[in-house]
Design a protein that fits this description.
By secondary structure, this protein is mainly beta. Helix content is 13%, strand content 50%. Strands 1, 2, 3, 4, 5, 6, 7, 8, 9 and 10 form a ten-stranded antiparallel beta sheet that branches. The radius of gyration is 24 Å and the shape is globular. This is Calycin-like beta-barrel domain-containing protein.
């Protein structure tokens, strides 16, 4: 009888540990992996929406929507309110997509040649300035923003 009571107590202990160990831990939740983006070139909204294709490595971030559209921003300021000039300290904005300004179905690439990248909040980065096409022959004014909880991890 003592042996069966002991076995029952062992089983109850194991089950109680299992349920405690499997409970939800709110403190270590990972941020959502979706984000919002907007791109304006020469005053026209070129692309705006949400996407689950978020990337981050160090202080470089990206957001894309398949092959249709992507933005890569490097040297994102770590502190909210800080701004960095495009072209300094490896700061850049690169935009790649299909039918952004052209309508022939080709893939287009635009690079920021001057302007700023600003950390507006923990999860939102804005940019504005002048960008040029891949040939650097045509330039355009551009601005935009990317926003995701993932970017809160940039310090």
């Amino acid at each position: 009888m003592k042996k069966s009571i002991f076995n029952i107590l062992i089983l109850l202990s194991v089950f109680s540990l299992t349920f405690v160990a499997c409970s939800k831990d709110d403190e270590n939740e990972t941020p959502g992996t979706s984000g919002k983006y907007e791109l304006v070139i020469n005053g026209n909204t070129i692309s705006k929406g949400t996407s689950n294709e978020i990337g981050m490595a160090g202080n470089e971030i990206s957001i894309s929507k398949g092959d249709e559209f992507s933005i890569l921003i490097t040297s994102v300021p770590g502190t909210v309110g800080n701004t960095i000039d495009i072209g300094t300290n490896y700061a850049s904005v690169t935009i790649l997509g299909e039918n952004l300004l052209l309508s022939d179905g080709s893939t287009e690439m635009y690079v920021g040649v001057s302007g700023t990248i600003k950390r507006v909040s923990a999860d939102k980065i804005t940019f504005e300035g002048t960008c040029a096409d891949a040939t650097l022959l045509k330039s355009y004014s551009f601005s935009g923003s990317v926003e995701s909880d993932v970017y809160k991890m940039i310090k």
